[in-house]
Amino acid sequence: MPICPTCGFVNVKTEMRCPECGGFYSKAVELIDQAAAEEAAQTFAGRCRRIVASGHIRQALLAEWQALPGQAKFSLWVIFVFVFALVASVL
């Protein structure tokens, strides 16, 4: 029997939310937190944290680069060429 962590209601059914207060049971909270953590790891900030947290930044950066799809690599290359062209035209 799941017990609501918010109000303490004992539920005999296998629902994800408490019928009394609307709070989520612990398993649902765990699943939501896990999905949020997986989503955050795929963002730019999450990738940067993973690279910095590793002991070998160069190897982690190379692994992240290899994991990027071809379209992302091409986009980064276009940005690099554009910035280089701007800097070269000013000098």
Structure description:
This protein is mostly helical and 91 residues long. The protein has a domain of 49 residues. It is built from four helices and no strands. Helix 2 runs antiparallel to helix 3.
Which helices and strands occur, and which strands form pairs?
Blueprint: H1 26-41, H2 44-53, H3 57-67, H4 70-90
Helix pairs in contact: 2-3
> Beta-strand percentage?
under 5%
Query: Can you tell me the residue ranges where pLDDT is under 50 for at least 5 consecutive residues?
Result: none
Helix content: 55-70%
Q: Please tell me what the overall shape is.
A: elongated
Total count of helical runs of at least 4 residues:
4
Largest sheet: none
Q: Helix/strand-derived class? A: mainly alpha
Rg for CA atoms: 23 Å
Mean pLDDT across the residues is 84
Number of strands: 0
Distance between the termini: 72 Å
H-E string: HHHH
Which terms summarize this structure?
elongated, 91 residues, 64% helix, mainly alpha
